[in-house]
């Protein structure tokens, strides 16, 4: 920035901030009025701590959903839960969730009928059951360590790419990553029916539950923290039945995500210092679309 000539003798011709006139000043000349237009933090968004905690609950519950899915898979692999038990439980949860979704306004301005929804579910179940023998043998030539590594990578990709702002319907990358991990893990189960039950559970956890959760956020806001908290508790308890140390790590991760990170955001927001002034690029607020047609 050029030196301010006001420190010396005042110029005979006053300086004007224009580009279309030739003036007896250097190109980088500014006067004392330059910093009078300085503004600080005019577009800074102020966050409320509990509002941020509520939003991070979506991240925490999604992490808990992954933990719940891995817990169910581990129980299936060890033979502690049978495929029929998982199928009937998943069917009951699906019917209950669909009923709740409809009760919260699912029938308003909907393009599909309930019969079409039932038909889609039946087609998916039929195709999944028919291809279960193929999926069961899909990774026979791949080592178990490689399958576990691919599954872990895909679940991390699912968490990283999940559309937390609008989780209904989950994004294609996030959903495909979760289903890919589910197929890899289901192929390591002992039977074909186990594979079918695990894939049905994956669809329920990674595709249908986010839709219901989004409906709860918009229609019954007071229920969202309770639903997210319930999922987090179930995730920690489920992992604790298999790996107590892992449950402790998951609990600490949820506490950091839900309580500590929002606190850091709110605290650091106080130190934010954005400056705006005449050096900023011009912002055109008028609608110029008529000139582009």
Automatic annotation (TrEMBL):
Bilayer-spanning residue ranges: 49-73, 85-104, 116-135, 195-212, 224-243, 249-266
Protein name (record): Phosphatidylinositol N-acetylglucosaminyltransferase subunit C
Family under the similarity heading: Belongs to the PIGC family.
Localization annotation: Membrane
Principal localisation: membrane
Pfam family, one: GPI2
Keywords: Glycosyltransferase, GPI-anchor biosynthesis, Membrane, Transferase, Transmembrane, Transmembrane helix
A GO BP entry: GPI anchor biosynthetic process
Topology relative to the membrane: Multi-pass membrane protein
Key word Isomerase present: no
UniProt GO MF annotations: glycosyltransferase activity
GO-annotated cellular components: glycosylphosphatidylinositol-N-acetylglucosaminyltransferase (GPI-GnT) complex
Organism, as annotated: Ictalurus punctatus (Channel catfish)
Pathway named in the protein's UniProt entry: Glycolipid biosynthesis; glycosylphosphatidylinositol-anchor biosynthesis
């Amino acid at each position: 920035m050029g030196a301010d000539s006001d420190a010396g003798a005042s110029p005979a011709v006053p300086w004007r901030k224009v580009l279309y006139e030739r003036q007896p000043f250097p190109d980088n000349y500014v006067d004392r009025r330059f910093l009078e237009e300085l503004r600080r933090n005019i577009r800074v968004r102020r966050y409320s701590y509990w509002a941020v905690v509520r939003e991070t609950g979506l991240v925490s519950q999604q992490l808990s959903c992954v933990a719940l899915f891995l817990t169910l898979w581990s129980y299936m692999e060890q033979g502690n839960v049978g495929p029929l038990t998982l199928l009937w439980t998943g069917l009951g949860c699906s019917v209950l969730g669909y009923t709740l979704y409809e009760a919260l306004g699912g029938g308003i301005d909907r393009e599909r009928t309930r019969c079409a929804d039932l038909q889609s579910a039946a087609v998916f179940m039929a195709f999944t059951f028919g291809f279960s023998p193929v999926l069961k043998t899909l990774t026979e030539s791949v080592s178990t360590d490689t399958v576990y590594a691919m599954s872990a990578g895909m679940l991390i990709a699912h968490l990283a790419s999940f559309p937390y702002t609008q989780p209904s319907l989950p994004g294609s990358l996030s959903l495909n990553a979760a289903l890919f991990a589910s197929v890899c893990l289901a192929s390591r189960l002992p039977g074909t029916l186990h594979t079918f039950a695990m894939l049905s559970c994956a669809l329920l956890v990674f595709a249908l539950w986010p839709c219901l959760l989004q409906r709860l956020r918009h229609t019954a806001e007071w229920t969202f923290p309770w639903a997210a908290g319930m999922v987090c508790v179930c995730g920690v308890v489920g992992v604790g039945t298999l790996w107590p140390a892992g449950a402790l790590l998951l609990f600490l991760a949820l506490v950091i995500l839900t309580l500590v990170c929002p606190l850091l955001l709110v605290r650091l927001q106080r130190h934010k210092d954005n400056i705006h002034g005449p050096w900023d690029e011009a912002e055109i607020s008028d609608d110029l679309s008529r000139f582009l047609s």
